[in-house]
Amino acid sequence: MIIHSKLPDVGTTIFTVMSQMAVEYNAINLGQGFPDFMMSEELIALVNKAMTDGGNQYVHMNGLPLLRERIAEKVEQLYHNPIHANDCITVTPGGTYAIYTSLTSILQAGDEVIVFEPAYDSYIPNIEVNGAIAVRISLQFPSYNIPWHRVKASITAKTKAIIINSPHNPTGAVLHESDIVALREIVAGTNIFIISDEVYEHLIFDGIAHQSILRYPDLMERSFVCFSFGKTYHCTGWKIGYCVAPAPLMKEFRKVHQFNCFSCHSPVQYALATYLQQPTPYLSLGGFMQQKRDYFRSLMQQTPFTLIPSHGSYFECYSYAGFSDEPDKALATRLTKEKGVATIPMSSFYKEGTDNKVLRFCFAKQATTLEKAVERLLQ
Ligand code: GLN
């Protein structure tokens, strides 16, 4: 059989490649982003309870109504936006799915979508599988700020959407109010949608407030905002998140969603509806993770890597330009095989493989894991 591939240039995601290599060489995995410590026992017990109480059948295709109400309450408290739980929130199997579904709901063949590189690796294939075109704009190096003048210059009659992501994966960069002002100026009076990937909303450090699109009603009317419980509650393998969008946009989103996932894992939704009533776990997450970041930073000072400072996500980027001109993929492979530490080479997040000699490290790990990894790097 011959398949005319929809994604002829796409290989296996770098996260799987590096995690597999880490297993093969028994390396400490600071590559793929996931915590190596236990999640809340209380939340696990709530899932068990939901199962034994009989919460094992389909819930509503848009998500358990009570969970959506609790999400709406959280959004109102955090971002002062009274969203309608019934019309504007859909529970999804993870943030990546929410982003894919948003794009699929709006894209027609030939549409253009503005994407910033380095870009999380699902964005461009999500655009291209829909027959649309990714218009790639490089973030300024090494600040990883958005060059808004270039965005303005890239808008055409075919621009259908702009994807933003703060805190940013893979760089950890965060958007500031000035970015929102620039974005607002560009989209005002157009039909351009915004896809806002906010899966790291609570992983923001150094006293900076998260610039959620949910704070801005004028931007919200054109936006799909995507979130992840996996990142918030240290359970990335649960694959559960949600999308928030205005009713007319969400209506289209649900047309795609209902024939794809239909409804998400029920027991987890019952459990989250209860657990979400406590704000402490998500409100304390930034402080908890900042401690890890600061500890990792202090350990990395002993190495020849140079920090590229950032304020969010669970990643930090380090330059090795000071001690090697090896391609980043070669270095990441060598560190995994020879030193036993897996990372992610940043060129994987550029379609043309731009190599600024930077590696991404995930610091969402136990202190002992971080210590061992840096010890290995120093050997
Ligand atoms: N979001 C995670 C990361 O950036 C990986 C998710 C995945 O493996 N698809 O590392």
Give a structural overview.
- It comes from Limnovirga soli.
- The chain has about 375 residues and is an alpha/beta fold.
- The protein has helices spanning about 15-25, 40-50, 65-80, 85-90, 95-105, 125-130, 150-155, 175-185, 215-220, 230, 245-255, 265-275, 280-285, 285-300, 330-340, 365-379; strands at about 30, 90, 110-115, 135-140, 160-165, 195, 225-230, 240-245, 305-310, 315-320, 340, 345, 360.
- A 7-stranded mixed beta sheet has the order 2-8-7-6-5-3-4, sandwiched between helices. The chain has a 4-stranded antiparallel beta sheet with strand order 9-10-13-12. Strands 1-11 form a two-stranded parallel sheet.
- β9 (about 305-310) and β10 (about 315-320) form a beta hairpin.
- The model has no long low-confidence stretch (mean pLDDT about 95).
Question: Topology of this structure?
Answer:
Layout: H1 14-24, E1 28-29, H2 41-52, H3 65-79, H4 85-88, E2 89-92, H5 95-106, E3 112-117, H6 123-128, E4 133-138, H7 148-154, E5 159-165, H8 177-187, E6 193-197, H9 217-220, E7 223-228, H10 229-232, E8 241-244, H11 247-257, H12 266-275, H13 280-283, H14 285-300, E9 306-308, E10 315-319, H15 328-339, E11 341-342, E12 344-345, E13 358-362, H16 367-378
Parallel strand pairs: 1-11, 3-4, 3-5, 5-6, 6-7
Antiparallel strand pairs: 2-8, 7-8, 9-10, 10-13, 12-13
Helix pairs in contact: 2-12, 3-12, 5-11, 14-16
The structure holds glutamine (GLN).
